[in-house]
Design a protein that fits this description.
By secondary structure, this protein is mainly alpha-helical. It is 52% helix and 5% strand. It has a single domain, classed as Cobalamin adenosyltransferase-like (Hypothetical Protein Ta1238, Chain: A, Up-down Bundle). It has 5 helices and 4 strands, in the order E-E-H-H-H-E-H-H-E. A hairpin with a 5-residue loop joins strand 1 and strand 2. It is globular, with a radius of gyration of 20 Å.
Length: 204
């Protein structure tokens, strides 16, 4: 059980922060950047839920909202995983690690939503409804967090759970599909028209 009794500690005033294993690193350390990006993703997902709750027909987003609530909890799991480097002799279950079953749940959600969407004929611009636009924002933030985690694996493969990157990768895909679903099942998507604003747009 987590118990927070004090918000500020002054221990980070020198530009360092503590990881979950007690080690100290600079606040711009790549690992801190990775779990910070996951935290940022979680905050934007929270914004999506707020947009859903104030939509004209929030009930129409019920499936999406329920999955986003689960995602928010998962993202804390991902952050906790990244915050504690994998030890050389770590016993299974001794640390909270993101599990393949959590990634698989996202895949199931993607498949469930995608089967009802109109086929894409172009790339989708971030727009349409307020809910869809915020989902696109969450998607791009999730991609950034994924890139940091992927770079961390390149640098510290033995100290990383690769499932963290897999989860963030799949989450970005899910948020994209959710954005399309929030745009009238894709009918309200704003599509990219290559070169539409060039003066020679009609010349190929």
């Amino acid at each position: 059980m987590v118990k927070l009794t004090k918000i500020y500690t002054r221990t980070g005033d020198d530009g360092e922060t503590g990881l979950g294993d007690g080690s100290r690193v600079r606040k711009h350390d790549l690992r801190v950047d990775a779990y910070g990006g996951v935290d940022e993703t979680n905050s934007v997902v929270g914004m999506v839920i707020v947009e859903i709750d104030r939509a004209t027909d929030p009930g129409s987003f019920g499936v999406i909202r329920a999955e986003l609530v689960r995602v928010q909890n998962d993202l804390f799991d991902v952050g906790a995983d990244l915050c504690v480097p994998v030890g050389p002799h770590e016993e299974a279950g001794s640390c909270l690690r993101i599990h393949a079953s959590q990634t698989a749940r996202l895949e199931k959600a993607i498949d469930g939503l995608n089967k009802s969407l109109e086929n894409l004929t172009s790339f989708v611009l971030p727009g349409g409804s307020a809910v869809a636009s915020t989902l696109h924002l969450a998607r791009t933030v999730a991609r950034r967090a994924e890139r940091s985690a992927a770079e961390l694996i390149d640098r510290e493969a033995s100290r990383m759970n690769p499932e963290t990157v897999m989860y963030m990768n799949r989450l970005s895909d899910l948020l994209f599909v959710m954005a399309r679903a929030a745009n009238a099942l894709g009918a309200g998507d704003v599509l990219w028209i290559p070169g539409a604003n060039r003066e020679d747009a009609g010349e190929g």
